[in-house]
Design a protein that fits this description.
Layout (H helix, E strand, L loop, with lengths): L4 H17 L4 H19 L10 H18 L10 H14 L15 H4 L4 H14 L5 H17 L6 H4 L5 H8 L2 H12 L5
Helix pairs in contact: 1-3, 2-3, 3-4, 6-7, 7-10
């Protein structure tokens, strides 16, 4: 079964909704896997690029290429296999101004492909875009963007992906992962900025 972009949006924005976007858990992963794995496979094969044609279909394309794979193939290298496609679509959407035609908080999904990229320039862009373009609901996204940026500044990559991607962790990365990892960085940033969520 081929899903329409509106079905993706109805599911992610309404059925799952903001409270579920980052809740995680095997139940949600299994549900997304059952409903959308085939669609994500099509995107992996290069299909669905016709969705990069306006604000709402582009948003759906980003959900399919940047969000769903992380649920469907959690712990596998395939979770990141369409990240480059998501970045390409996000760049095209932002050049067209489509991100600003989508309300907060779903606007964040135009910026997350940059947050997920192991590149310092894209990390800086993500921080700036969230700060500038999500004034009402972006505080939580911003602290996470800064935490991702700090991980890339420190290691040049995301150590928690190493196992899935078959990369050997350095001693520093092992220490980082064994001593709180990302959560430790997030806590330190929140301690420096008590107003952050």
């Amino acid at each position: 079964m081929t899903h329409s972009y509106s079905e993706v949006l109805d599911y992610w924005l309404s059925e799952v909704g903001p409270k579920g976007w980052y809740a995680g858990g095997e139940a949600l992963d299994a549900e997304i896997r059952g409903r959308f794995a085939a669609l994500c496979g099509h995107a992996w094969d290069g299909a669905l690029t016709d969705w990069i044609s306006g604000p709402e279909p582009a948003l759906a394309y980003l959900i399919v290429t940047d969000q769903f794979p992380r649920n469907i193939w959690r712990g596998s290298d395939r979770a990141f296999a369409t990240d480059a496609k998501a970045r390409m679509a996000a760049d095209a959407a932002m050049r067209a101004g489509w991100d600003m035609q989508v309300p907060e908080p779903q606007r964040q999904f135009f910026y997350l492909p940059l947050m997920h990229h192991e590149d310092p320039d894209d990390q800086a862009r993500c921080v700036a875009l969230i700060a500038e373009r999500m004034p009402k609901t972006g505080a939580d996204n911003l602290i996470h963007a800064r935490a991702h940026q700090e991980v890339i500044r420190r290691f040049g990559r995301f150590p928690h992906r190493n196992a899935a991607l078959g990369r050997t962790s350095s001693r520093e990365e092992v220490d980082f992962l064994e001593n709180g990892g990302y959560a430790q960085i997030l806590q330190a940033l929140k301690a420096r900025d008590p107003g952050a969520r």
